[in-house]
Amino acid sequence: MARRSMTAYGRASGGGYQIEIHSVNRKGLEINLNVPRELLFCDIEIRNTIKESIHRGTIFVRISREKGESLIVLRISI
User: What is the pTM (predicted TM-score) of this model?
Assistant: First the structure.
């Protein structure tokens, strides 16, 4: 049976933010998030989204604001 590597790196940008994700192989699942203060309310949702697709490894997620970009205004209606 061939093994699939869990070591990976990806980067994307959009909506005034840049997202970097990299992972390394580990037995358990550990998720490390580094997000701007205005996105802290998304912490649990980001973790749950990752857990849906990845079941083991150490995942590092860094979300940062792109230079010169204004913040996205979010409105939540309850």
Answer: 0.75
